[in-house]
Amino acid sequence: MDKHLPKKGAHPLRLGKARLDELVEEATVDCYGEAEQSSGLLTKLEDHLALPFETEVLGAKVTVERLDATERGEIVAICARGRGRQAVPLLDLPLPSPPPAGVEWVQAYRHWLRGG
After folding, report:
1. Which residues, other chains included, contact 90 with Cβ-Cβ below 8 Å and sequence gap of 6+?
2. Which of 82, 89, 94, 102 has the lowest CB atom count within 10 Å?
3. Burial of 112 per CB tally in 10 Å (0-12, 13-18, 19+)
């Protein structure tokens, strides 16, 4: 059994602290400062998170089309509904069930933001 998989009955989005630390380390190993670390995590998210996917934001179904970074370095999900687009902080984005492939990188980013 893979030691990185959640235990049977565990919530699929809940990775252990050690695994989250490993993911953050992998994304930020050659990064100096928060801006570079955020960029490293964005790169991992873009490489691994299956896009697009659907979720709900404030009760409305939206499609997460892509990820971006704000001028402050915050990673946001660009959500579409019809012709409208809205940037939603990845920290606050509700994830669907089942989650998209690569969701562990969303969890790693959130873990990093909270200071591990």
Report:
1. 45, 67, 74, 75, 76, 77, 106, 109, 110
2. 82
3. buried
Residue 8 lies in a domain: no
Contact 32, 40 (CB under 8 A): no
Q: How many separate domains does the chain show?
A: 1
Instruction: Summarize pLDDT for 30-50 with one digit per residue, the tens.
Output: 999 999 999 999 999 999 999
**Does some domain include residue 12?**
no
pTM (two decimals): 0.84
